[in-house]
Amino acid sequence: MKVAIVTGASSGIGRSAAIELARRGAGVVLTYGGNVQGGLDTVAAIEKEGGTAVALPLDLGDTSTFPAFRESVAAALRDTWGRGTFDALVNNAGQAEAALFEDTTEEMFDRLTRVLLKGPYFLTQQLLPLLADGGAIVNTGSSSTATAGLEPGYSVYGSMKGGLDVLTRYMAKEFSVRGIRVNCVSPGPTRTRFAGDAFSRFPELAAPLAARTALGRIGEPGDIGAMIAALASEEGRWVTAQVLEVSGGFNL
């Protein structure tokens, strides 16, 4: 059985990606941050459909915890699937904060850097010895890196996601010697709990964003999760080093 690791799978895009990978026959190691119940709910959703999943805590903003996390992953692989390796890594966990350029603090800058760029970089480095040759990595980027239609307030968030786009290509180059593919998906506006569950608290946000989207609605987590799963699975076997916008034509 193939096994995938999905970070930040307690809700939203990560949960959807974990469920979609399980539907394709993969076992799933999923991580959660503060939302323990969300992680357990994702496991339950996968098990309800006959899949196998294990939930582990992960603080993506603290690289000192990564060696212990790798040991937890190795134990889960051994105890649950009888394996020493896994086949796909989805670097999805993150957080969103907005502030105009002149209001951005160094603390906010450093926090987003740790979670959005440094975290995926060094987590991948830690897990790489456990990733099987011929495997796949999918990073979750953002349409906030686009060259048009930008929203004020996301200079840090967008810059870190832009760094992840470039990192994707360098990973693809270096890991290709092991047959490992690396791609990045860039969602447009998507109905998740991101940014403090903004779409639930401010439902009026959806209509203007849908009006700017060619396909006439904002994204749902399943729209993104299905693409992540496809890139991480056999369907994506000849795709690498790509940053793929999955937005329904936002700002087209």
UniProtKB/TrEMBL annotation:
* Annotated Pfam families: adh_short_C2 (PF13561)
Q: Which positions make up the signal peptide?
A: none
- What are the UniProt keywords, alphabetically? Oxidoreductase
User: What is this protein called in UniProt?
Assistant: SDR family NAD(P)-dependent oxidoreductase
- Could you tell me one molecular function GO term of this UniProt entry? oxidoreductase activity
Q: Where is the Ketoreductase domain?
A: 2-188
Identify its protein family.
Belongs to the short-chain dehydrogenases/reductases (SDR) family.
Q: What's its EC? A: 1.1.1.-
